[in-house]
Amino acid sequence: MGLNVLDIAVIVLYLACVTTFGMRFRKQQSTIKGHFLAEKTIPWWAISLSIVAAETSTLTIISVPGMAYEKDFGFLQLVIGYLIGRVIISVLLIPHYFRGDLVTAYQLIERRFGQRLRPLTAGLFLITRAAAEGVSVFAVAIVVGIALSGLLGSFSDFGRDVTAIAIVTILTLLYTFKGGMAAVIWTDVVQLTVYVTGTLIGFVTILHLVPGGWHTVYSVASAAGKFRIFDFSWNFYATYTFWSGVIGGSFLTTASHGTDQLIVQRLLSARSERQSKVALLASGVMVLFQFSLFLMIGAMLFDLYRLVPPAVAFTRSDTIFPTFVVTRMPHGMSGLLISAILAAAMSSLSAALYSLSSTTIVDFYSRINPDASEKRRLFLSRAATVSWGVVLFALAIVARHGGKVLEVGLSIASVAYGSLLGVLTRKASESGSMVGMLCGFVLNIYLWQFTRVPFTWYVPMGSIATFVIGYGASFVLLRPATALPATISGAIGGIDAA
């Protein structure tokens, strides 16, 4: 059993509808702020849902169920850290972003240190965000390759991957090119609704397919230890423990949601500082529910395939949920579930395109050409969006040879987050911070490529290294900086007890 004409029709209809919906927001924006921040008119609940959609790529939907299938619910320990990180950002960072007329996160760096560090942090973001998003876009090819294996049987694996990635990239570009941040956020809301609804339908379908229903699911999964969440062991090399989850997850979220333009751009689009905080905190509740749902899907699939083994053994956990959708879901529902997975891909891709574009124009072009007209900058911002779309397409093709897509994507992002977070210290000079940031970045690359240290520790270790080296280098270079308000320095990039 595979996809039939009805499923394909559902997928095509969805792609057409969501692209048309996004293009409804086309209007003549007159300023960069209006284009990238939607004139600060978006309500908190839409921003909250958009944050969740932006951080929930295809990686999440296909990889998280595979984690529970192979192991247990230990990933939720990282989510606990995600919640703590959101509280830290709401208290320490959001107030600073709403002081002044900021468009990107890296303008705060220039206000704190000076002009030299801002392009370094912005450039680091561009490189690592593009690389991580390339992995996310490639995940689309995994899903479409499984879904359309019958229809594209004459295509090589490479041909299927290129076709799938090209379709999603082009359609996403259609509405992000003209619609601005408003189109991105409101389309995120629709796409999140679609993929959560689709996943819930998948939940009900699996429950129906497992003989004995919930009673069997619970008893088999419990006996196999699938519902185990906490691991209080001190195994430093275990990816998901209570300590790596709470500490690493807190650092990771404080960096990803507090210094990454992907999320900061949404927070800055809120009507007020208070609504921005509410949006971020509410997104944490939704993320907890969402990851719990995806993990439950994985545990249920473990039960199903233990009782009714698959025709062909799975070679990678990322393919388990998409394979179920294509082979076991009723026709029509299969199309809806594939559409849901594509929805997550498009929302994540649109978020990346706009964050990369805004950073390129605001943090680089506008600094080089400060007298450029708004019309010129708007034109170039759209050109940058298309250019980054081409770059991400190419990186997605390169990412075909990676490992588990979720952990690869998180690892790439975490390599940069440590140095971006650790640079926000109280007494470091600009030159000292640049030295510390580069050292922290190099350390994380070493940890990623040459050690068994899991990605959950990259941000804490990179932040501490950046803080300590940057602080020490500042004394050596004897260039004190203007003090940043103590509220931000007490918890970011290592605690400054001085």
Which SSEs are present, and which pair or pack?
Blueprint: H1 5-23, H2 32-37, H3 44-55, H4 58-70, H5 76-92, H6 94-97, H7 106-112, H8 117-147, H9 157-209, H10 213-223, H11 242-258, H12 261-267, H13 273-307, H14 320-328, H15 333-368, H16 374-398, H17 405-422, H18 430-450, H19 458-477, H20 486-489
The low-pLDDT segments are: 479-498
The CATH class label is Mainly Alpha
Report the portion of residues in β strands: under 5%
Number of domains: 1
Which series of helices and strands comes N to C? Answer: HHHHHHHHHHHHHHHHHHHH
Under CATH, the homologous superfamily reads Sodium/glucose cotransporter
What do the pLDDT scores average to?
82
Shape, principal axes of CA atoms: globular
The percent of residues in helical segments reads: over 70%
> What is the number of helical segments per DSSP (H or I, 4+ residues)?
20
What is the SS-derived class?
A: mainly alpha
**Secondary-structure arrangement, i.e. CATH architecture:** Up-down Bundle
Question: Rg to the nearest angstrom?
Answer: 22 Å
Biggest β-sheet, characterized? none
What's the total number of strands?
A: 0
Q: Do you know the CATH topology?
A: Sodium/glucose cotransporter
